[in-house]
């Protein structure tokens, strides 16, 4: 099974990367920049040239990083990405000596991490034809950090390939956009995602289809909804809270409960991992469980705790954003019913409540609520208090004009 087989709904993008990998492996590494005339432009299926820097864009859950690592495997594998050789397995485990990765569990990527990556990019490959560097969530780089990366993209070593991942080209500064070749991904279809979830997780077709539909084709979220009953229950409660709003008091209580749900969800994802990391760090320092950490080693524990706090902040923000995306799907369904489009409901299990809400408000009011959801997402991303942002949204959602 090749590295491309588990990528769903991206035939055009896969064709571009496969052709580029085959082109890059067929020529001498010194010619890796032969495709420089395509840098900064969207890739087409007819363009099989290889170049030194790539940008993979697409909505959350479209498989940006999966495609980036598949491309990395195809470049580092002697068989072009067979999926079975040691090279491919090392790329999958992120342990290949010629693969460098940068991802963050915090809100932003630190400039020190990018500087370290740029320094490493100057070394020649150890065992393969290329050194491949993947930056996930490249949109989380501040402008100052992006400028550090820009210098590496302007004068890259001949055998180094950069692969950046971001939701859209607009999330990166113009000077970086002009130096990368962009490949845009599309949202995979619900049947494609459901088929993948069934194959990976061994769930029934009904569970996989529901998870894919509720996740709106977000592959990672579909996996979680299909395999984690608590995640499914939290989502259902969130939507029922929104459908049950009848006044300001309900709105404030619903906002508080949504914050609580997002916090519980974030803790479920981070608490066990935090404890495991702390125990592993103490073990590596030779400190037994329950013993006091020596003064000279406390800075290591403090650095780990700071990292975990940053990860918890991002996890909470991601959880809140997921709630807002789910709410957007709810009001999208209401609007479709108001406009007489009764097919393809995302939340068809709540159809009775959706119809009642569609009757109780106007389409204009529903659109205003959907706009308020977008405002709330922007506010939270801009460090506005999540409590205030969600409360303002719920109060707006509770206001309805009779249809």
UniProtKB/TrEMBL annotation:
- Provide the E.C. number(s) assigned to this enzyme: 2.7.7.7
Q: Kindly list any coiled-coil regions of this protein.
A: none
Instruction: Check the UniProt entry and state the signal peptide residues, or none.
Output: none
Q: Does the keyword Transferase apply?
A: yes
State the Gene Ontology BP annotations: DNA-templated DNA replication
Question: What GO MF terms are annotated?
Answer: DNA-directed DNA polymerase activity
Alphabetized, the UniProt keywords read: Nucleotidyltransferase, Transferase
Name the chain's protein. DNA polymerase-3 subunit delta
